[in-house]
Design a protein that fits this description.
4 copies of one chain form a homotetramer. In chain A, a hairpin with a 5-residue loop joins strand 7 and strand 8. Chain A contains 22 helices and 11 strands. The radius of gyration of chain A is 24 Å and the shape is globular. Chain A folds into 2 domains: about 280 residues, Hypothetical protein af1432 (Orthogonal Bundle), CATH 1.10.3210; about 90 residues, Growth Hormone, Chain: A (Up-down Bundle), CATH 1.20.1250.30. In chain A, helix 5 runs parallel beside helix 13 and helix 18 packs antiparallel against helix 22. Chain A is α+β, with helices and mostly antiparallel strands. In chain A, the strands form 4 sheets. A 4-stranded mixed sheet of chain A has the order 3-4-7-8. Chain A has a 3-stranded antiparallel sheet with strand order 5-9-6, sandwiched between helices. At the C-D interface, strand 1, helix 3, helix 10 and helix 16 of C face strand 1, helix 3, helix 10 and helix 16 of D.
């Protein structure tokens, strides 16, 4: 029997709190899980700074990756049980696509580094490009496993993740507006944060999925389950992913890494606290090996060292990150944005480096995109509902709720600043009291506001 | 209003996946949570190497500590609602004990370091002594908060944790065979691992608790809920806490730290990979500050560095820990223990340093102790059931199930060795085939076995 | 101590699958639960014919009534803990309103009979009027308990249910667009049906509730929890409460009772099968006692008798109801409604009494009403969100999702007919094949459709 | 394609709160569900009088029967996926046994009537014999469906239920100490009552099951899951099934039916309240048709009628059953049993018919039977654990917990009497006060007790 078809003598399971069990049936999948690159995902939190707000959310990309694999596996089973192809080109499910789908599901996030969003911003990396590199570079263990299936298999899996793979059912199973990735992360993030918003009816959605010529549609009888998924995702963005305190900790992280980089570039860091594993990135000459050496703990270790650095700002930002001292924030809009320079001046007057201690952060998401546009950076096909006669209708045409949030960016832009500007640490008389009083006039109902005379 | 009695204007909540919400009503509690020492618990996994077996179990001591606080808070509420004291010495609940109980609950684990069990073994530290030090040393933020309640308050909280506090209800709420600590960790570890064994009926147990002169008893109507708790705990030990793969990873960690220490002591480590934050421990001269600088990520960072160390064993053990390459293990007993020297010799013959690559590990727990013995290292009072006439009966007298596991150590002793001894990496002919064949003869049904001729 | 303030020596609990425990603290509440009128609710299913579609939904109005009580109790506790009144008229919570609120919550559905909707249609009764009668009529046990609190207490509780009570916080707690009733039934119906749609974050919604001068508002930070509640309720209506199969069984029940009534009025029923307990209703001269004698089982018993009645239609409809043989249905609109007379003619031609075997059923609900209109039959106040400065904003102004479904009736109208018209029982040649063929031309994608030529 | 092999074009599902979905793949199964005899199970509560104690437990035998089917289906899937037979007699799973297994699972309880235990006691019926009759009698719809599979199929299914079927794997799947029936009812009863005891790890137990020559064994790695199942079942008996209040309501029901029968036999019932559907049973001449006409609601309807009967005892017992007025009870043992005649005399003296108002009830269960004894009334094979070398070991040899409750009857015997004997209705002076005082002397800690002088 070829390696591609090698089944384990008996299915192996991983206990998972979200799906109860992750079932592994193929030797290839088990070997991929055991690679060094995949095991590394145990050391990278799924939600970065979110655990500063929702303390339960300490789960890593390892469990999520297994979860996406499991959802994809269940979709394949459902397709094979209910819609197996009878003739090439009939638009039904061809189970010989299973392995490539499962590998792509398992590995879709393998290129993520610690606190990806911030890291990529500071060091100009791209986790998707690195994912492809891990799959296709001959130096990785992942590549060695994939190559053993067939020489072209690594590229094949990569093309699914890049959405250039010919079989659209496989592509949409892994990346679309209702894919295995999103299904797992909503459930998993809801489970670990403890919020209820992210829960939707996974089995009902899975059962509604139907393979057809152009990918995957949803039986119209499952309309409300799909709608519920979209609403859940929308609410998770509003309530969890965009939480101001998590973003505030991300702002601190961003400024902290930026500061460390500047100090390194200026050549005046403390000799004792050399961030060995970060230097290749400071110097813009990192290898894949360097990248794979990073994880959340590496960052934390340098911050512990830096907490007593000579540079006061580096030390203070490290302390704020490690000991959870978030900045405060307020919403603003295009009109009140004009107030920000004045506020920054006040913050400087109160003794803060306004570069290090203030920030603007925009967080927006498209809850559902009803207009496929191939020119977009990341176009995603619309969700199509299938009627009993086989005709299709786009989701937002059928759901008033989805229509209400469709095509509209959702989120806010916030201005971050030290909370001491509003709640002076010392309760008594303060040297800067006038500054604080002036500052406070611009904030009302947690929003930047032009004061009435 | 004094700081001790300062209530938040409106209760503050932390979203928690296990208890749904953690309710904070006192300013003191909120201030303790915001200390540097408490925030540090976010970086120390609750179950150490268990997440190598149960990938979901990535939760930290931070959430557990909040959970113990919450369970204690609910016990106080229940006592105050149903059994408030009417006269001093009536054996009912005196709610002026609430704050000391809540602080002790919150802080009972604050002295834990990364992978405590292993760490304490290698560096001869003691997390309970450190807990007391953190509470009472003037240099900590925790102490500063406690001191603000009253000068003697830090010692008072420490005495609860040390079980010398006069009010036995408070002591037993925090440390006994059915305390807030155990209640939280069973539920939490079950939630995060995804196993079902740890679940018991928290509300039913809480409702059964009754304060009395000598501490806390349980209404006899709640007998089965208490029994279920004991069985759940027993099963969690068997299935989760004593899992051979997690213990195997702990063995690797132990040998790895031991090796690093020996190399340091011998003075021949790589210059590039100096484990700055560990040196005070290698040199047996660490301060509380040094201790508080450690966390799981610090260890991981050194392991990443050491993965390419010159010392082959240090490098390989680091790789095994980071990339999850557990040792294999088998049970043995006093009779088959005699085989171990021969097996170690075979392992040496196959090219392994048998000091670094084999180990014996015993894991035993007393599921329930029905015989209080003050001479024991950690004596715990028995669980007493209260009949409707107020008379008491010890749990194992009433429950055949508890009686069956009462007073008997439960667990096993295992011999750990490289799994390559059983499953040679290369499927074909092997130089060491004879050795492997000999080795395999001693293992049957996952146990060390004296071969029949 | 007066009866009104009599607290149980220790709180009593009822185990409940939805709220875990129902806590009873007052003797009055316990006495109400033990009345004959309240115990009768055990014999009346909460969701009538819905269990024919969702077999798990066999729960009764008894559990729901306890659940509404429990939610109201938790609201009172939250209000008393966080917003206790300090001075009369300050708009905060006055805990002396607790007992009237709890009694109204417990008893709000006490006037329901079996299959209320159908029953009221056939016999022109009104469960709300009967609720008030049960509270205020001296012949009931409920009234005797309430009267023991004070002579005017029965009327006081009744006025809460009738929404004429002065304290708007109490009224809105029991009847409003987000009241204890709706909160319990969504969670309970979701639990028993097994669907996921009805779940929302009860604790989060409860925590958001704030008493104020004009009733109960919701803190704006809980906006998404409130939004989620509205969406959940909308989806439960779409997926569960309006399910066509349940409505079909209700149509059968309606026609069956109608037929029985006509037979009785015509005086030609079978002598053996006299529906003793229904006769007062057939004769429009029923007493409260007669009403309280009815339950689901009484109906079922008569149907079992009627299954072998001489009247073929009565017998067949009884069989269809007992043995779950639903009619089939299709959606229609104002245009396709014109086809119905022709379809009814075809159904007659195929041998069915089209009066007994066809029906039109409209099911519509207002998911959220953003425009309070006191002239409406059952006006409900809008949901108001409270900003941090105390100002209010109506929910649909803040939530695009709620706005999308606000003020618009949601549901459908369906035409019901024997499914044999589409799937002839005998697979072979059929005398009525031409009729069936003609009939089938009008149905496409489960909708009534004007056929293309 | 033959009817036996006819698969639905697409699997059909029933939403179930316990298993989420019940999957139906065969036309035969769907047809069986739609029979009149199976639909009748919707009108028979699973736990009889238990809902008087646990109000949530209003579920019927319909859902349970679907659940047992679903568990059996999952076992078949697991066996076929992991242990498919390769050669006749190899002891592995032969999937051609699937249909007979599924039908037996679905229909195993079809002979149950309302409140079976009591009913069988009064009317000397036997639900197992009736199950076989429903399967094999040509007059039933169930038989017609089974017959369509093949002429001998009804007998085949019946033989599985009677445990005479040749394939022991199929027999043990349906009736053994760890069968699909027990697995479903524990989970379902726990879900509906809301208690936590009944929950065990279904998926883990299922995964441990292994077909072998003599039936079904359990992989030794699943030992603790099996142990947990046994403990859960033990606790459900102690806490739910044997609850004194439910048994008290059963006592009332028993006495009520007995009284009605005696009145009928004496020929002096009220003319108005003839229990038509019960008469065949009073006269010991009932047909299968008569039996199938009974359900919980029929009983309730007669009780409503009898509540105003001329016979005072019949009327009062009806009231007590309908309005939930349980008797009180105390435990006794062989020694204190001697007190009962005296207590009965006191009860008579206080004006009660001691035949109607007192009772003795024993409830015992064997939590686990480690000694298979074919001479027992219902012998059940022991649970066998399979080691990795294929050898077997009986469960209680491996589990101290199971051993502790193995082979020992568990339960109690109680004496039931009017609670007015202890808590006189009128708080003031009472004619019978001396009697009550004497009575109370014999009861201590809820047990019958010989008073100390």
């Amino acid at each position: 029997m070829s390696y591609a078809n090698e089944r384990l003598p008996r299915e192996k399971v991983f206990r998972d709190p979200v799906h109860n069990y992750i079932y592994v049936e193929n030797q290839v999948i088990l070997d991929l899980i055991n690679t060094r690159e995949f095991q590394r995902l145990r050391r990278i939190k799924q939600l970065g700074t979110t655990s500063f707000t929702f303390h339960g959310a300490e789960h890593t990309r390892f469990g999520h990756s297994l979860g996406v694999y499991e959802v994809a596996r269940e979709i394949c089973d459902h397709f094979q049980r209910n819609y197996p192809t009878k003739a090439a080109g009939d638009g039904l499910w061809d189970d010989s696509e299973r392995l490539v789908a499962l590998c792509a599901a398992l590995l879709h996030d393998i290129g993520h580094g610690p606190y990806s969003h911030t890291f990529e911003h500071i060091f100009q990396t791209n986790h998707e490009a690195i994912t492809v590199e891990i799959l296709t570079s001959e130096e990785t263990e992942v590549n060695r496993v994939l190559r053993s299936v067939s020489p072209e298999f690594p590229e094949k899996v990569a093309s699914v993740i890049q959405k250039t793979y010919a079989n659209k059912q496989v592509v949409q199973m892994i990346s679309s507006q209702l894919d295995a990735d999103r299904m797992d992360y909503l459930l998993r993030d809801a489970y670990y944060t403890g919020v209820k918003y992210g829960t939707f009816d996974l089995q009902r959605v899975l059962r509604s999925m139907k393979p057809y010529q152009d990918g995957i549609a949803f039986d119209i009888s499952g309309k409300h389950a799909v709608e519920d998924f979209i609403v859940s995702r929308f609410q998770m963005y509003q309530q969890v992913y965009f939480h101001p305190v998590s973003r505030s900790m991300e702002v601190i992280l961003d400024h902290l890494l930026q500061r460390a980089k500047e100090i390194y570039e200026a050549g005046n860091g403390d000799e004792d606290f050399v961030p060995t594993l970060l230097i290749p990135f400071f110097e813009h000459r990192f290898s894949l090996e360097d990248y794979l050496n990073l994880d959340d703990g590496v960052f934390g270790t340098y911050f512990i060292n830096w907490r007593t650095a000579n540079d006061q700002i580096l030390a203070d930002l490290s302390h704020r990150f490690l000991d959870r001292k978030p900045l405060k924030s307020v919403e603003f809009d295009s009109e009140t944005a004009t107030l920000i320079p004045h506020l920054r001046a006040l913050i400087s007057d109160a003794g803060y480096d306004s570069h290090a201690y203030t920030a603007i952060n925009n967080s927006y998401d498209l809850p559902y995109d009803d207009a496929y546009d191939p020119k977009m950076k990341k176009p995603l096909t619309q969700i199509e509902l299938m009627r009993s006669d086989g005709s299709l209708v786009e989701l937002s045409q059928e759901s008033a709720i989805v229509n209400a949030i469709s095509g509209k960016l959702s989120g806010d832009q916030r201005f971050f600043f030290p909370k001491e500007m509003l709640i002076p640490e010392d309760g008594g008389i303060n040297l800067f009291q006038d500054i604080f009083n002036d500052f406070g006039r611009y904030i009302h109902n947690n929003q930047l506001t032009i004061p009435k005379e």
